[in-house]
Amino acid sequence: MPDYDFSQVDAAIIDSQLNTARVFRDVLIRLGFRRVELFDSVKAAAGLLGSVMPDLVLVDADGEDSDAFHFIRALRNEPTVPNPFACVIVTTWAPTPALLTRVTNAGGDDLLMKPVSPKQVRDRIVSLIEARKGFVVTADYIGPDRRKSPREGAQVPVLDAPNTLRLKATGQWTQSGARMLLNEAVATVTTQKRLRASIQVAFLVEFALVGLARQAPDRMSIDHVGRIGGFLDDLLRRLGDDGDHAPVEAVARAIKTLADKVRAAAETGPVAADDRDQLQALSRALMQAVDPDRALEAMTHEVSSAVAGYRSRLEQIAQAKAAAAAALTASTAAAADEGANEPVALSAPLPAAAGTALSAG
Length: 361
Description:
Strand 1, helix 1 (18-31) and strand 2 form a beta-alpha-beta unit. By secondary structure, this protein is α/β, with parallel strands linked by helices. The protein is built from twelve helices and eight strands. The longest helix is centred in the C-terminal third of the chain and has 45 residues, at 296-340. It is globular and about 70 Å long. A five-stranded parallel beta sheet has the order 2-1-3-4-5, sandwiched between helices. Strands 7-6-8 form a three-stranded antiparallel beta sheet. It has helices at residues 18-31, 67-77, 97-106, 118-130, 164-169, 175-212, 219-226, 228-237, 246-268, 273-290, 296-340, 352-360; strands at 10-14, 35-39, 56-60, 87-92, 110-113, 135-138, 141-144, 158-159.
């Protein structure tokens, strides 16, 4: 292993199994970590989110369902967390593809299977120092880039998130320098979250409009309108003291009120055309208020392209399901026909009792 110095590095281990937690702690202490805190539950470790976050967190995924993932999402997404870029390794006794997906979607860096050797732990730490993925910010995600290939539409920028584990282990750490990097990165995340939330709201509105225009609005359109409020709440809580956000707040609150009205109307009947038009106009006004330097035409084009791509994927999924159902029906029918045409075995022997009765008669 390269000559890394862990004498300034802090870590936290969250694991309900004390013996396992002690194994991890012993490994980190032997590597030279300055401080290693043990917590027997996510609840016990909740204080980390409001204090100085360790450089590395190992969190067990085998405890109470979803606790580990709630913790990781809070670490990445809560605006008050001092260091939302801390390295996170999730540990488990039973790795599955589904668990790996949950780790990735929550914003974890890596998944490590127990039992572990000191070398495995060391190698994962070295990987986080030397080859950690850049962070991306979307409307509902902050964390290491999950993309395996470029996606259609606007490209989400990749942020070189501050890695305090690397800074300390490579001797580049200074308190003031790290604080400056963290403040700059958090400001970038805040700006990106506002932008992505405004675009997501416009996307939800644009997708729902077709269904809302029907005499009986469809369920998917109603559900999409219902999701608007959550993104607006996240946007509103990220309006800090870095400028005049009164226009953004005013439009966001107007959309939230109108979206609630539209959803309630859609549950019982058609939505008035004026309400649909106003919802679309407000969603575009929100994008313009959040990013006044970008042409509204470019933003609406981005939204329209995303909606078209989404509809295409939904159609492909529906076609695949229909094809699978048709194939299953054909297979079942073929099996039934084959069974009906099979000759009856007349030469099969009768049960003993039945044979005796026939011969006696």
